[in-house]
Design brief:
The protein is an alpha+beta fold and about 120 residues long. The protein has 2 domains: about 5-50, no CATH class; about 70-115, no CATH class. It is about 50% helix and about 10% strand. The protein has 6 helices and 4 strands; from the N terminus they run ααααβαβαββ. A 4-stranded mixed sheet has the order 1-2-4-3, with no helix packed on it. It is globular and about 45 Å long.
């Protein structure tokens, strides 16, 4: 299953998270931000954008533009599994070691959805 299939598979969970936040409920009994507080609005907009597939669209378009990205190597997946177990869809994660805008100028790596962006090769 690819990124779009995974997005479709997780839609019921996204809808539940969105509805729970709208009624002031969180998983595990944690309290949600107060209604109409700035954090509440940020979380609502992020969940709504995720539900609509805006982040998926961004990641797919970025993948077309950043064609030099590569899948994680077996060694990188093995290392990640020691930290995250089976919680991540490793075969969907890509590594862009030629990211330009932020990383090259300021020398940092960051994650955008399913893509790890860096200005130079990352070694496990």
């Amino acid at each position: 299953m690819g990124r779009t299939g995974r997005w479709l598979q997780l839609q019921p969970r996204r809808l539940r998270m969105l509805s729970d936040l709208l009624i002031g409920r969180r998983p595990g009994g944690a309290s949600a931000p107060r209604f109409f507080h700035v954090y509440w609005w940020v979380e609502i907009w992020m969940l709504f954008a995720d539900f609509l597939g805006i982040f998926l669209l961004y990641d797919n378009l970025a993948g077309l533009v950043k064609w030099k990205g590569r899948p994680l190597s077996k060694e990188e997946i093995d290392l990640a599994r020691t930290i995250f177990g089976d919680r991540l869809p490793y075969r969907l994660i890509r590594l862009d070691e030629a990211a330009y805008f932020g990383p090259r100028r300021h020398h940092f790596a960051y994650v955008s959805f399913y893509t790890v962006n860096s200005w130079k090769p990352l070694r496990p």
